[in-house]
């Protein structure tokens, strides 16, 4: 299996409280496994507050819904040994 790398990393974002915010990270190969999103070192799951998806097979997205002050912190995307933070 080819080593999947991060082609385009996360970008720092400022958002108003109550708004949604989306983070995108592009990887080198489709169907990447061993992918993880974290907020403040806490692993995120796909649920009503966090929408995790993949567009066009290589663009991994995380949307945090109706963010609050408690959501301030570092977002991390990891694929295998590679990470990107914002």
From TrEMBL:
Q: What is its main location?
A: cytoplasm
Please verify whether the record's keywords include Kinase.
no
Where, per UniProt, does this protein localize? Cytoplasm
Gene3D superfamilies, per this entry? Immunoglobulins
Q: Name one Pfam family in it.
A: I-set
Keywords, comma-separated and alphabetical: Cytoplasm, Disulfide bond, Phosphoprotein
Segments forming domain Ig-like: 2-86
Which Gene Ontology cellular-component terms appear in the entry? cytoplasm
Entry superkingdom = Eukaryota
**The protein's name in its UniProt record:** OBSCN protein
Q: Which organism is it from?
A: Vidua macroura (Pin-tailed whydah)
